[in-house]
Amino acid sequence: MIPPKLKEGDEIRIISPAESMAMIADDQRDLAIQRFKQMGLTISFSQHAYNENAAIEQRVSDIHDAFRDPEVKAILTTIGGYNSNQLLQYLDYELIAENPKILCGFSDITALANAIYKKTGLVTYSGPHFSTFGMEKGIEYTEEYFKKMFLNSNPVDINPANHWSDDKWFMDQENRCFHLHEGYAVIHEGRAEGISMGGNLCTLNLLQGTEYMPPLEGKVLFLEDDFLTNVPTFDRDLQSLIHQPHFDQVRGLVIGRFQKASNISLHDLTQIIHSKPELSRIPVVAEASFGHTTPQFTFPIGGEVSLEAKAEKVTVTITHH
User: For a 10 Å CB count at each end of the chain, is N or C smaller?
Assistant: First the structure.
C-alpha cells in the first residue's frame, strides 16, 4: 500500500515520537519551514511536539491525530532519539491502515517505520527529519531526493552525492567540513530486484523476535549505523540480523556511509562482509549516501528496488515507491 504523493499546498505534520522540537534552535526551525514553503508545502506541529520527555500517551496521540486528520498529507519526524519502540504496542494500526499517508524519518524512527510497514502493509520511508531541513549548507542532495520520492511517482535512480560531511552542522552552520565522495564501493558484485527495507541497523534489530519485525524474504536491505557503533559491534549486529528467519532469501545489501567516530573503514567493512558466507551469494554495496552522515537520500520501506553492482558501475533504482 503506497501512500498518495504530495502536491502543492499540502500540509505536513511534524511529530516528535522520540526527541522533542524543544531541542531544535528557532532559526533552524524557521529555515526548515521556509524550505518546505519553497516546495509549495505547509507545516503544522503536533500538539505535543515541543513537550520534553513527553509521555507515551502524548506521543501516540500525536501519531494517531496526524493519521486521522484529513488535512494532513504527510508526517515527518522532528529528529531521532532512543525510545520510539516504546510506542509500538499502543498504536492503532487499523486507524493507520485506513488513513494511508507518508511517514518519513530515520535513525530511531527505523523502529516505528518498519513496525507500521509490518503491521499495516503501508509503505513508509527512511529519509530526513524535519530538523534536517534546518541545515544551511550541503542540503541540496537531500532535498533533491526528498522531492523525487514524494512529489512524483517516477522511478528514482539513486546516484551517490558528490560530497559528504560528518560535522556538527547544528552547532556551527558557517564552518562546515565537506569531503569528496568517491562513489559506491562494491564488496560483492551481482544483480538483484526486491523489496527495499531497513534503516538504522541497531534500531532495526530491536524488532527481532517481535510481531513488529518485517519478514526478510525477497528484501534488498539498506542498512546504516551511527557513531555509537564500531567494528565488533557492527559485526555482531549484522550477524544477529543474518540469524533471523529467512535471511537466506534476502537478495541484496546496500550499506550507508559510517560516521567518523565509528572508526569503521571500508577495509574493516569489507573484512566483516567477507567473513560471512551467508552474504557471498548476494550483491553488497557500501558507501551509499544515507544514514547519519549528510547529505542523504530517501528510500521506501516496502518499495521496489533494483540493484546492479559491478566493479566499474553501480546502479540503484527505486522502481516503485
Answer: N
Per residue in 289-317, pLDDT (tens digit) is: 999 999 999 999 999 999 999 988 999 99
For position 222, what pLDDT does the model report? 98
Q: pTM value?
A: 0.96
Q: Could you say which of 1.10.10.10, 3.90.1150.10, 3.40.50.300, 3.50.30.60 is the CATH number of the domain covering 163-320?
A: 3.50.30.60
Whether 20 is catalytic is no
DSSP 8-state secondary structure symbol assigned to residue 272? H
What mean pLDDT value characterizes the chain? 97
Task: Please give the Cα distance from 285 to 189 (Å, whole number).
Answer: 8
Provide the b/e sequence for 100-137 (b: ≥16 CB within 10 Å): bbbbbbbbbbbbbbbbbbbbbebbbbbbbbbbbbbbee
Cell numbers 567493512 correspond to 269
* 8 A C-beta contact, residue 166 and residue 293: yes
Residue 244, burial from CB neighbour count under 10 angstroms (0-12, 13-18, 19+): middle
Catalytic annotation, pick one of 107, 165, 262, 306: 107
Instruction: Determine what percent of the chain falls in helix, strand and coil, rounding each to the nearest 5.
Output: 35, 25, 40
Q: Which of 3, 151, 158, 153 is nearest to 75 (CA)?
A: 3
Structure confidence by residue, pLDDT tens digits, 89-105:
999 999 999 999 999 99
Query: Comparing C-alpha atoms, which of 14, 96, 117, 103 is closest to residue 62?
Result: 14
Does 224 participate in catalysis according to the annotation?
yes
Alpha-carbon dihedral angle through residues 246, 250, 254, 259, given to the nearest 10 degrees: 10
Q: Are 282 and 289 in contact (CB under 8 A)?
A: no
Which residue out of 48, 129, 181, 292 is catalytically annotated?
292
- The residue extents of the domains of the chain are 11-134, 163-320
Q: Which three cell numbers stand for residue 213?
A: 519485525
Residue 3 carries which DSSP code?
P
